[in-house]
Amino acid sequence: MTMRRALAAVALLAIILAGCGSDQEPPLAATPSEVATATPAPSTPSADTEDTAPTTVTAVSETPTPTSATAGMSAGPRAPRYGIAGLVPPNFPDSSDADWLTFFAALPNLGGAVGNYSQVADLLQNQEVGLAAGLDVLPVTGFHQDQNGGLEVTVDFTNPVERAIFLDAIVGFATDYRPPYLGVGNEVNRVWEEDPAAFEAWVAALPEIVDAVRAASPGTQVFATFQYEFLRGLDEITGAGRVEDWTPLEVAAPHLDLVAFTSYPYFAYDTPDELPADYYAAIAQHTDRPVGFTELGWPSAGIEPLAGSVVEGLGGTPEEQSAFIERLDALLEPVDPAFAMWVWAYDTSAVGPTFESLGLSEEGGEPKPALEAWQSFVERE
After folding, report:
1. Alpha-carbon span 107 to 118, nearest angstrom
2. Measured between alpha carbons, how far is 262 from 274 in angstroms, rounded to an integer?
3. Contact, 358 vs 299, CB < 8 A?
4. pLDDT tens across 256-294, in order?
5. Which residues on adjacent β-strands are paired with residue 341?
6. 223: helix, coil or strand?
7. Which of 62, 69, 263, 357 sits between 20 and 30 A of 31, alpha carbons compared?
8. In sequence order, what are the residues at sequence separation of 6 or more whose Cβ sits closer than 8 angstroms to the Cβ of residue 184?
9. What's residue 10's pLDDT?
10. Cα(343)–Cα(217) distance, rounded to whole angstroms?
11. DSSP codes of every residue in 303-355
């Protein structure tokens, strides 16, 4: 789906709202990763079971002081709280204008926030899509993208020119939009695994990046995201043999105002009932920073490549998907997240089998039990 069609759908939605005699802005809404914002490739959960997730280690002499949550909420646009991570309407990537209208009209009842998870060059354009629809927007950029079953680093922070270009773009974005939150790295522990030098270079650049954003927009809380199950070694689904290692979080967190996570517990658990009540409590043992979740998900169908394997139970059912959402209140309580985003509003065949059934509704728009569960979760909060 092209950005032009998304913008056209937003404009048409605005016309319809105006025609209904509304004298208020459209209610706030939400969205997810790169697949959701402009391109047909997800930033957080990746398309394969072998490369799941989508979406640096030098010490510094002084630990930065985090920006207060109150400041982040009060300056600039209203802070996102709950929503949908990805711009994925029904029938994506072959969505019609009517599908886009359906998507934008549904978002206010799904939490009122949308994700802008983009490469830095696309951050501004994708921000405009959410704002044009009257939504709260959660911007997250990064310095890698999924490529051929692995990842490709897109910003070399050891190169002064590339570092300056990234910094100028981030500062310009913060100056123009003054977002309550701004992510400057997406699932960075995956970079730490595959390209330690690139991760170290990013960490070395963090003090400059964070200070520059604070100077441009004092109310903005700067964060990065981490893939939670990979940090904890809870990864039966990829066969990568990961073990628990919180090093990338512990190295980066002191420079950040907030730390955020993508989380897919079905990577290691057959059913939501198996999740321990303190599943997310371990975060507090490794950082004192406030917490957010840029992506949460549980599938409503089996994962075809796992059929017949010893881990074929790691898929899901509609009932399991709904049950996971019904447990979210209690599971998230120990970390009291500043924001929590469900990954897709609709299933999509644009991603691989690990992530294609994570929507709250089916690809054609038929609601699943998870839709009502998520709406109840958002309303409770």
Report:
1. 20
2. 19
3. yes
4. 999 999 999 999 999 999 999 999 999 999 999 999 999
5. 83
6. strand
7. 69
8. 141, 142, 170, 206, 209, 210, 213, 222, 223, 224
9. 52
10. 28
11. -GGGTTSTTGGGS--HHHHHHHHHHHHHHHTTT--S-EEES-SB--TTS-TTT
The single-letter code of the amino acid at 276 is P
Asked if 113 and 136 touch (Cβ cutoff 8 Å), the reply is yes
Give the residue among 224, 232, 300, 294 at the shortest CA–CA distance from 268. Answer: 232
3-state DSSP call for residue 204? helix
- β partners of residue 227: 262
Cα angle value 6/134/371 (rounded, 5°): 75
| CA–CA dist 225, 298 (Å, integer) | 19
Check residue 381 and give its pLDDT: 59
Distance CA 191, CA 169 (A): 21
Q: The pTM is what?
A: 0.84
CA distances from 55 to 64, 196, 373 (A): 25, 17, 25
Q: Residue 148: what pLDDT?
A: 79
- Using only C-alpha atoms, the chain has a radius of gyration, in whole angstroms, of 19
What DSSP element (H or E) covers 237?
A: none
Sign of torsion over alpha carbons 150, 152, 156, 157:
negative
Class of 3-380 in CATH: alpha beta
Name the E strands within the chain.
Answer: 82-84, 113-117, 136-140, 144-147, 150-153, 181-183, 221-227, 258-263, 291-296, 340-342
pLDDT tens figures, 47-69: 333 444 333 222 222 322 333 23
**CA 266 to chain CA mean position, Å:** 17
Residues composing the chain = 381
Domain layout of the chain by residue ranges:
3-380
